[in-house]
Amino acid sequence: MTSNLTRRRFFRTATLGTAGAALAAPALAQGGTELKMLTCWPKNFPGLGTSAERFAQRVAAASDGKLRIKVYGAGEIVAPFEVLDAVAAGAGDLTHDTSYYWFGKDPAFVFFAVVPFGLTADEHFTWLKFGGGQELWDELGAAHGVKPLANLNTGAQMGGWFKSPINSAADLQGLRVRYPGLGGQMLSRLGATPVNIPGGELFTALQSGTIDGLEWIAPWNDLAFGFYRTAQHYYYPGFHEMGHTLSSYVNADVWSGLSSSEQAIMQSAADAEYVTSLAEYNARNLDALTTLVDDHDVQLHEWPIDILVEMKRMAPEVLAESAAKSPMATKVHENWLAFRETQRRWGDIGDYANARLKQG
Q1: pTM (2 d.p.)
Q2: Using one digit for the tens of pLDDT, what is the confidence trace for 273-285?
Q3: Mind listing the domains of the chain with CATH numbers?
Q4: Burial class, 330, CB count within 10 angstroms (exposed 0-12 / middle 13-18 / buried 19+)
């Protein structure tokens, strides 16, 4: 515990020393409070960045401007993969990130982002609200000095971009691919080498040959990043991310310092943005995919069946191995598995997509 406290104090001192007094948390001005949000994305990037701004706008509107959030893009204050440490140390007030970036801190974090062959966006929200997920997430967050909020979901993602076609699992041998989370671990078992690169650096890495392929999000965001200019082979389905939840981690002291009404405003704004962002992604992805295929000659491929079969086979094994690495991950895994089973049973009966499939 002493070493963690020392690390947090050092991080805050180092960050404040380089960034200046503007990072003193949280700022009181004009009869209100301004919180600093440190994000992992380019500022105002479609979907991720604009959703962060919209969340901030919701909070300001609901509080009559008494609680405000200033959004900082990736690298403006700290590097993308440093935002959680920065906020926990008090060098920022809340993050805008994805939880699987923090796998190295505890494997339990991945369950609150997305798991291969896991929960859809609506199932994940249901787990958080009515399946015990939020309580487990709060417990995990408290151990790291933060309060977690789910405030965005991209829906189903794509399988990624490759410079050369992938016709079988053999074609993955030796490829360097940007595939974070457990999906990357699964690809590594087929011979690929996963690397973790922040979103803002992906196009350059792909163009320069630092990586041979990548997954980012889905057509709307992938079109904006222009991956089609250097890779033409685009794969689906995104078996690794069936409904990716993004998050804000609020510094624990900042959260406890908010009034009950301010906490309720933050929670309601996060809930509203989760639903709105999912709708926006669902609305925009097909138009973007049509543009990629029709205007930019992107070749759309379904993953080869041998890869899909092998990925589905190994998913429970990889998940169990990861969950066994920490007591918290084991606890979350057990709850998550039980909930997924109930949702699958209900989905077999009540899911309209299943009914439509059976109708032909």
Answers
A1: 0.89
A2: 999 999 999 999 9
A3: 2-153+244-282 (3.40.190.170), 160-242+284-323 (3.40.190.10)
A4: middle
